[in-house]
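Render this sequence as a predicted structure.
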Amino acid sequence: MISRNTLKLDSDFQAQLWSHLLPKDTKKEQAAFLFCRTFSANDELVFEAIDYALLSPTDFAAQYSDYIELTDETRISLIKRAHNLDASLVEMHSHPGPWPAAFSFSDRNGLRETVPHMRWRLKKRPYMAIVVAPSGYDALVWNGDAKIPEALAGIEVGGHLMHPTNASLEGWNDE
């Protein structure tokens, strides 16, 4: 049984991701996807990035300071790439405003709709969603047949564990 979920990132790559997600020259939400191998070790599910996609403005059907939506072409391309790599997906997006790191009501509704489809397309591989804000980050993990997400213990960067806020776990249900 898995008792803990972690994501391992190289420190330079983590800095590159955060710079992409929280650029100083725009207040629009940004996004990236990680393609990860997952493995279990000592009751822990580990996500290890093997490839990534830093999304650009052309990848979005809508991109605002409080909402993003991918184009159908981008979504299809990400699923195909993950399938070809036999990888799990980790979706990441930013909340560039002054609010705490947590998934918004809109994010949560989108995840309830999107995650089951993405996991079905990717043979029920584990899936993770991360939201990054200037104040920190939050994350949710779906594994096995669970419809309710689990917590991420943290992102391991250079031997240090960066802890999420875990502000988004409350309120999920089986419906």
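Summary. The chain has a mean pLDDT of 93. The longest strand covers residues 31-41.
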